[in-house]
Amino acid sequence: MYFKTLFFLLFLTFLSSVVRLKAQINSNNIDRNFLDQNQLYIHPSASNKILLNTTYEIEMASNALTNSFMKAALFKGFIDEKEKNDVSKHLSQRNTLGLETNFAIHALFRKPKYAVIAGIGHRELLYTKFSSGLFETIFRGNKMYTGQNVELGNTNIGYLNYDYLYIGLNKSIKNFNIYSSIQLIRGGFWLNSNIEKAKMYTEVDGSYINFDSRLTLNYSPNKFSTFPSTSGLGSAINLGINWTKNQHKINFEIRDLGFIYWKNQSKFSLDSNYKYEGIEANDLFDQNVFASNNIEIDTIAQKIKVPKNTENITQFIPSTIIANYNFQLNPKTELFLGVKQILLSSYLPKITLRAQFQILKSLYVLPSINYGGFGKQSLEIGLIKSFNKTLIASCNLYIIEYLLFNKNTLGSGLNFSLTKSF
Fold first, then answer.
1. Looking at the domain assignment, is residue 86 inside a domain?
2. How many domains are contained in the chain?
3. Which end of the chain is more exposed for a tag (fewer CB within 10 A), N or C?
4. How many helices (DSSP H) and strands (DSSP E) are in the chain?
């Protein structure tokens, strides 16, 4: 029972972390710099000497799990057959679930020939890629696979959080604006599991289960450490350039290009064939495991005799590449096309198509449609409001499908930004 529980615990770690982040929505995360084209339209004019900005953003999406499934997993603690059936209809060879949340406080100090940018922030990233066989076995048991092999591999489950402090320069040259910054990083927690191969065979009469697997798992000893304690230190750079001419704006950025050096990481490696006897085929996974989160990975690893090592590991941070194009259709209307790519196997290029309409002198509305990322399609609506020409607030919500379309795949999030100019 222990080996199968290890798989479920990894998946449960992911879902329980989602719950933990949901509880922190009022205290964690933000947009990363003043050049982000998603927020470019809210920035005050170049005459402002100082800009202060704070932004919180959170996004959770899946190309397989549905809105109703996640509601049940997060809030009910029990998932019924209808909710599982809805997910099964969306399963494919490549299934993903992910969550990214960012919080930061930024400052820009404008000089005659350049500007200094600085800030602090926090980032959390959950990511998983899993096979359809893994989902069905976890949530329905393995009775449906008796007499055959089921593939549970090609799975990656990970979680990362860290804090950062950055400083950099912003320089305008004719139609171009160039920025670069360097950030110092305090690693909080990192868990990463790669299940390259995991084939399970269940004998027809349920007398034994054969498990052929190859996997690695590493994680930080300090779970969800908070400042000033740390499990690792690192650094990264951010680079960006944008070009503006007449009605056209083009922006390109690379964010979080760097690493974290983790100390004393616990690492498990397994490349073996196991045979378990006397296990009921229809009782492989206990669905009530959602009600308990007191199982330790170390304990399970000892039971199934997985060797444990302690290592120092250098992890390359999942960097983000962004490319955007803005077109000013008329004084009150602007069109936006953007592509975002996080360098993870579970993340596809996220394409955003957005329109910005000025409906009042100091009020804008921004409908958008997104496709890709950790999920599929999602609808978004945003508002921008200025106050006294020195304070601007913006909010983007993409929860329409989460609230109204339970059978659709998960795609929801929030972005809030507040900018003050002096």
1. yes
2. 1
3. C
4. 6, 17
Q: What dihedral angle (degrees, nearest 10) is formed by the CA atoms of 244, 246, 248, 249?
A: 20
Query: Is 352 a domain residue?
Result: no
* Greatest alpha-carbon span in the chain: 80
In terms of Cβ atoms closer than 10 Å to its own Cβ (0-12, 13-18, 19+), residue 408 is: buried
| Cα–Cα nearest to 269, from 301, 232, 237 | 301
Per the CB < 8 A criterion, the answer to whether 129 and 110 are in contact is: no
Q: Does residue 379 contact residue 360 with C-beta atoms inside 8 Å?
A: no
Question: 296: pLDDT confidence band, cut at 50, 70 and 90?
Answer: low
Spatial separation of the C-alpha atoms in residues 137 and 117, rounded to whole Å: 50
Amino acid, res. 245: K
Contacts of 165 (CB under 8 A, 6+ apart): 119, 120, 183, 184
Helix (H) or strand (E) holding 405: none
Q: How many Å apart are CA 108 and CA 84, to the nearest integer? A: 49
Structure tokens that stand for 176 in this block: 């171009």
Antiparallel, parallel or unpaired: β 409-421 and 391-398: antiparallel
pLDDT digits (tens, 9 = 90+) for 113-142: 888 999 999 999 999 999 888 888 888 877
Q: Which domain holds residue 239?
A: 2-321+403-421
Give the C-alpha separation, 131 to 197, whole Å: 11
List C-alpha distances in Å: 420 to 114, 122, 172.
19, 21, 21
Q: Is this model's pTM higher than 0.85 or not?
A: no
Residue written as token pair 């400042």: 227
CA distance 232 to 131: 31
369, 353 Cβ separation under 8 angstroms: yes
Q: What is the pLDDT of residues 177-217, one digit of tens each?
A: 999 999 999 998 898 988 888 888 877 776 777 778 788 88
Report the alpha-carbon distance of residue 169 to residue 180 in Å, rounded.
Answer: 6
How far is 87 from 139, CA to CA, in rounded Å?
Answer: 11
CA distance 167 to 185: 12
Q: What's the CA gap between 160 and 136, in Å, rounded? A: 26
Is position 240 within any domain?
Answer: yes
pLDDT digits (tens, 9 = 90+) for 302-335: 655 667 788 899 999 999 999 999 999 998 999 9
Name 165's bridge partners. Answer: 120, 184
